[in-house]
Write a structure and sequence with these properties.
Radius of gyration of chain B: 25 Å
Largest sheet of chain A: 5 strands, antiparallel
Structural class of chain B: alpha/beta
Distance between the termini of chain B: 72 Å
Organism (chain B): Marininema halotolerans
CATH topology of the largest domain in chain A: Alpha-Beta Plaits
Largest interface: A-B, 21 and 17 residues
CATH superfamily of the largest domain in chain B: Thiamin diphosphate (ThDP)-binding fold, Pyr/PP domains
Number of domains of chain B: 3
Shape of chain B: globular
Pathway (chain B): Amino-acid biosynthesis; L-isoleucine biosynthesis; L-isoleucine from 2-oxobutanoate: step 1/4; Amino-acid biosynthesis; L-valine biosynthesis; L-valine from pyruvate: step 1/4
Distance between the termini of chain A: 25 Å
Strand content of chain B: 15-25%
CATH topology of the largest domain in chain B: Rossmann fold
Family (chain B): Belongs to the TPP enzyme family.
CATH architecture of the largest domain in chain A: 2-Layer Sandwich
Bound molecules: thiamine diphosphate
CATH superfamily of the largest domain in chain A: ACT domain
Oligomer: heterodimer
Cofactor (chain B): thiamine diphosphate; Mg(2+)
Shape of chain A: elongated
Helix content of chain B: 25-40%
Catalytic activity (chain B): 2 pyruvate + H(+) = (2S)-2-acetolactate + CO2
């Protein structure tokens, strides 16, 4: 089963290396890791998307807890949570295709953020599945580059009113 | 980095006013003294020149090993003998990488250590400077925690935290990497009184609900057994364990790391389990209906990785300070997280007895019917006989370190340990070269104790250069070489599993160990027969300084019983001596 872990860590040099070394060494698979500042100075929030059965997930959490720089581990899969990812995608687009592409991305509430002579860049946010779908729709036009941030997430109960 | 002249006193005619500013390296040593470190092991080099310059002042005993691996295993032996963190210092680059085996050894066995490495100055870091190695990165998977000191003002806090982390909770090695510019930088010195580490709060006492459940299952059990591991030794829970076992009437198996955690002379003791375990211990694990693991981690040398055959009829209770151990290898019916001394103390209030009389009769019957045995010989010295002789002549009153291999298993089998911290061995990593330097550290830690280093002729050659330290500091360790002229344990596997295709296990070309030892100014004996062995050992024991006895034993002896890898505990090979 897929799990989204929210891990509060000390904002220390190498903390990402400690976490990823641990996950790698213990043979836990990682779909994505994203790190950024948290609400508290000195702490970062790491969001890890991983797969595993209940027993594996218990181990992942316990092993993460053993790292001194890990303050808190939360499995967001057990709570209502908001998950988002940011996608930037550069698509081949001559003048003729631009209108059509704009039409394709619109229902995704994606935005065209850059236009060149032969291509354009689209920005979209959302859940992973939505972004995957958008990529598939754009594929026929010719995808030149993709950058994705990986999932970040917050539990709904923790941060009320923030969608 | 500009060196400033130390300011002592002043021109104004006042007598020596106390220094108020210190260099990073002086601060480091003051911190070590604050932590009551009485000996450090190490090896100098460019990046630690400032530290060694401060050591020159005196005030802290330093032993110059002959290889950083020797230094770190000595620090480890010191830690295992006392429970206090061992301290080692090495220079950057090769000095630091020479510590890696020792750090991993300590991590695998949860040994408290503070490992101090120098590094190149910060402005050079990342440039592949001379003798630069990313020791933080290299050791990340094998430390409990690590620090790179980037500012001298952090140093006291970091040292304080390092000692705290190393020695509390589940102990382990902590690395402090100190760039040369930090060692040279100056600051005032205040040693913090306490630590506050937000992400570190080991659980120390057991959950009362789980203890209540424990009492229930004990009262119901018919075939209970205790599996006691290194955690009992670490926690100093030996008395509590005896009370627990006696009150509940539950027989006790001790893992390799648990040896000494429960007296090897106790009527409830069944020996060691697993690959070279006793019949009684392994069969008790097969048939038990209640298995209580205490500070043991159910590793594959105990379970043989065959969980389908391990304690399949049992409810498993698991007491451990590390929550991550619970459920890691076996499914647990009752998890009890906490320091096992506290856990047992709490459990020992109001303990029920288990209904184990018939079971005890059965398992002790196994112990009598299937004892450990070997075929003795009058013309060849047998290694098991030598170990037995050590046990009998010392009455078991010794600290024994081992290296890794057959002799290690024979010590575990034939020397019965009465006290915790009297058996010192690299269990988890199985590090050859560990035993002799560890004995030096253990001897320095317990000067009144007889310390014996039982080692193989292979492993001894990995760190025998530390004879120089034994000689110079007159550390009266008695080294027992079980000299079978080959890499015995590997030879055994090749005999049993590889059709006697003996590949690269012949140790021909080894030195004459007596001459080698004497070259260091240490006394040595050789023994090829029982008579020689008895005399040589008696003389070595009587000799007040360090001594080496080279016992030439039968080269083709195997360790039995044995469970082949991948087999269950029910498939023990009892050996050629016994059906
Ligand atoms: C550093 C290291 N290298 C290799 C091994 C693999 N190994 C395990 S036991 C053994 C043989 C040890 O031979 P010896 O020291 O003579 O002891 P014996 O088994 O003969 O008692 C070897 C090579 C090891 N444990 N550690």
């Amino acid at each position: 089963m897929r799990h989204v872990l929210s891990v509060l860590v000390n904002d220390q040099p190498r903390v990402l290396a400690r976490v990823s070394t641990l996950l790698g060494r213990r043979n836990f698979n990682i779909e994505s890791i994203s790190v950024g500042e948290s609400e508290e100075k000195g702490l970062s929030r790491m969001v890890i998307v991983t797969h595993g059965d209940e027993r594996t997930m218990e181990q992942v959490q316990k092993q993460l807890h053993k790292l001194i720089d890990v303050i808190k581990v939360h499995d967001l899969s057990n709570h209502p949570a908001v998950e988002r990812e940011l996608l930037l995608i550069k698509v081949e687009a001559g003048p003729a295709a631009r209108m059509e592409i704009s039409g394709v991305v619109e229902p995704f509430r994606a935005a065209v953020v850059d236009v060149g002579s032969q291509n354009m860049m689209v920005q979209a946010t959302g859940e992973r599945a939505k972004l995957d779908a958008l990529i598939e729709l754009l594929r026929p036009y010719g995808i030149k580059e993709i950058a994705r941030t990986g999932v970040t997430a917050l539990s709904r109960s923790m941060v009320q009113g923030n969608s | 980095m500009g060196h400033t002249v130390t300011m002592v006193g002043s021109q104004s005619g006042k007598a020596e006013s106390p220094k108020t500013e210190y260099t990073g390296s002086e601060i480091l040593l003051r911190c070590l003294i604050e932590e009551q470190v009485d000996v450090v092991f190490g090896y100098p080099g460019g990046a630690v020149l400032p530290i060694y310059d401060s050591l020159y002042e005196g005030g802290l005993r330093h032993l110059l090993a002959r290889h950083e691996q020797g230094a770190i295993h000595a620090a480890d032996g010191y830690a295992r003998a006392t429970g206090k963190p061992g301290v080692v210092i090495a220079t950057s680059g090769p000095g630091a990488t020479n510590l890696v085996t020792g750090i991993a050894t300590a991590q695998m066995d949860s040994i408290p250590m503070v490992c101090i490495t120098g590094n190149v100055s910060q402005e050079l870091m990342g440039t592949d400077a001379f003798q630069e190695a990313d020791i933080m990165g290299i050791t990340m998977p094998i430390v409990k925690h690590s620090y790179l000191v980037t500012d001298v003002c952090d140093l006291p806090r970091i040292v304080k935290e390092a000692f705290h982390l190393a020695s509390t909770g589940r102990p382990g090695p902590v690395l402090i990497d100190i760039p040369k510019d930090v060692a040279n930088a100056r600051d005032t010195f205040h040693y913090p009184k306490g630590v506050s580490i937000r992400g570190y709060q080991p659980t120390s006492s057991a959950h009362p609900l789980q203890l209540a459940r424990l009492r229930e299952v004990i009262a119901e059990a018919k075939r209970p057994v205790i599996l006691a591991g290194g955690g009992v030794v670490t926690a100093g829970a030996e008395k509590e364990l005896i009370t627990f076992a006696e009150q509940t009437q539950i027989p006790v198996i001790t893992t390799l790391m648990g040896l000494g955690g429960f007296p090897g002379q106790h009527p409830l003791w069944l020996g060691m389990p697993g690959m070279h375990g006793t019949y009684a211990a392994n069969h008790a694990l097969l048939e038990t209906d209640l298995l209580i693991g205490i500070g043991a981690r159910f590793d594959d040398r105990v379970t043989m990785g065959r969980l389908d055959k391990f304690a399949t009829k049992a409810k498993i209770v698991h007491m451990d300070i590390d929550p991550a151990e619970i459920g890691k290898n076996v499914n647990t019916f009752i998890p009890i997280v906490g320091d096992v001394k506290n856990v047992l103390q709490a459990a020992n209030v109001d303990l029920p007895q288990s209904d184990s009389a018939a079971w005890i009769e059965k398992v002790t019957g196994w112990r009598e019917s299937y004892p450990l045995c070997y075929r003795d010989s009058e013309d060849r010295l047998k290694p098991q006989w030598v170990i037995r002789h050590l046990y009998e002549t010392t009455g078991g009153d010794a600290v024994v370190t081992t290296d890794v291999g057959q002799h290690q298993m024979w010590v575990a089998q034939y020397f019965h340990f009465a006290r915790p911290r009297s058996f010192i061995s690299s269990g988890g990593l199985g590090t050859m070269g560990f035993g002799f330097p560890a004995a030096l550290g253990a001897q320095l830690a317990t000067p009144e104790q007889l310390v014996i280093s039982v080692t193989g002729d292979g492993g001894f050659q990995m760190t025998n250069q530390e004879l120089a330290v034994a000689s110079l500091a007159n550390i009266p360790v008695k080294v027992v070489i079980i000299n079978n002229q080959n890499l015995g344990m590997v030879r055994q596997w090749q005999e049993v599993f590889y059709h006697k295709r003996y590949s690269e296990v012949d140790l021909s070309g080894s030195p004459d160990f007596v001459k080698l030892t004497e070259a260091y100014g240490v006394k040595a004996w050789r023994a090829k027969t029982k008579e020689e062995a008895i005399t040589a050992w008696a003389e070595a024991l009587a000799h007040p300084g360090p001594a080496v006895v080279d016992f030439w034993v039968a080269p083709d002896e195997n360790v039995y019983p044995m469970v082949a890898p991948g087999k269950g505990l029910d498939e023990m090979i009892m050996g050629d001596e016994k059906a």
